Each structure stands twice: as structure tokens, then as C-alpha cells.
Amino acid sequence: MNDGANRDTTKRSARERLQAERERQKAKDKRRRTLVVSAAVVGVLGLAAVVGLIAANAGKGGSSAKGGPLVAPSGATGKDALAIQTGKDEAPSTLTVWEDFRCPACKAFETNYRETVHELEAKGLLKVEYHLVTLIDGNMSGSGSLKSANAAACAQDAGKFPAYHDLLFDNQPEEANDAYGKNAKLLELAGKVDGLDTPGFRTCVEDGTHDSWVNKSQDAFRAGKFRGTPTVLLDGTDIFADQNNPITPQKLKEKVEAAGKGGPGGAKTSPSASRSAAPSPSGPAKASSGRSAASPSSSARSAGRSATGTAGSATLSPEHSGTSGGH
Q: pTM for this structure?
């Protein structure tokens, strides 16, 4: 009898121990599930916070960074007054340039073609219509494209656009460095242009007076379906459309001088080009508002950042040998 009672007691104790172990395991599993769920909730909240921060920062950069009334700079020309013109109104040839002060390929174009362009302007043979865009802000984030374009427009108000335009490209920071997103840097550079750093210029820069105008120029660039910056049109024709025979600085000079032999208005343009680039009898030439005479497929390729937002090389590609070779 005692042996039977002992066996029953032993079995009961084993079952009780097993039950207790199961209860402990259940409690442990419950605690683990609670921790997992809590961690997941924290992760979701953290992700939401990060996404919110990214969205907020995205809203601060790019072409829509700042609204306000649209104020075109003094003397702006072309459709919707979106171009800043240099050179004489009666020049027989027109160079239309879409560029971004943060764009490395734009700097390469300016470096290699600037001397020739200025020479032709001085001879009264060429005028240039600059369209300022914010492509790099959209691709790399930041606000340097917008703010430097606004500052250049402010320089136009002061009659100092050519000098400040060239200075911005000469001092262009690395593409990923948004140094031009700081007004202090733009004002510092303005001090190097005689007579530009005035209270009126400073107010224009700090208030972003022409931000909406720059944004509208970017919208026109996008509507034009250009492939990238710089896009450069000579009397409506993309100078880099023929990659086997791009217009080098010397060829540009020859073409413009040949067109100028007939005197003011002597440049030959296609019917479509005349709508956007040919000078009118009553005043400045009409600049393209983004829909150029060149077809979208022939727009200049960007060696910095393309208009579609895809990244490219910071140096000029073989396709842009006309800008890099300095021929």
C-alpha cells in the first residue's frame, strides 16, 4: 500500500511540476510577444518620424521651395519675361542658354565658351538669353540653385548681371555642396563685383524677391522636355544636337560671324526657330519659354544631372565633347 501511495504521489508531483513549467513558459512567451509588438510599434513610429522629416526637408528645397508674388527682374525678356538678355538687341544671332549655377556641365560650358561669347557680344553680332533653372536642387536636394538664380536676378536689377553670373560659375562649389543655399555666401561673392553689394541688393537676396520667377523658369524648362543642363540653342537650334559635329567655340564664332555679314537681322533661322529666337522689329528677341524650336530628342545632354532626375557623371561625357574640348 505504501509503495502504491508513493507512486501516486510521485506521478502527481511530476504532473504539477510539468504544469508549473508550462505556465512559466506561457508567461515567458507572453512577455516576448509583448516586447516584439512594442518594438514594432516603436519602429513604425520612428519610420513615420523619418518620413515626415524627409518630406519636410524636401519641401524646403527644389523649385517649389518658396512662393510669393512673381517678380521678374529688370529688363527680363521673352515669353513670360523669363529670360535675362545680354548683348545688343539688334544682334543678328541669338544664343538661348538654360543653365543652373550648381551644374558642373554648365560651368564647363561657361569656361570653354565664355570668351568667344563675350567677344561676339562686344562686336554686336550675338545676344544671349539666359534662362535660370533649379535642376540640381531637385536632384541633389538643397536650395543653392534657387537662391543663386534669385541672386543673379537681383544683380540684373542692379545692372550687374554679366559680372555676377560669371563670378557664380567661377566660384561654383562641388555639386553635392549646397554652399549657394546660404545667402551669406552669395552676398560675400557680390562684394567682388564693383557696386553690387548695396542695401537694395542685400534685401532682394535675403527676401528671395525673384524666387517665384525662378520657379516659373524651372517649370518652363520642364515643360520644354529638355534632356538636361546646359541646353544651348543658337537661333533655335541645339548646338550639341549633332554629336558627330558639335559646335565648338571656333565653329560658333564662324557661324555667328557668317550670319552677321548681312547686318542686323541677317541671321538665317528656320520658321520654327524664329518663333523663339529671331529678333522682332520692335525690340528684343523673344526668348524660348521652354518649348524650343529644337525637338526634345535633340536637347543637350547633361553631364551633371539630367532633367529626368537620374544621376550622371560630374564631369562632361563624350556626348558633350563640344563643351569639354575647348576646341
A: 0.64
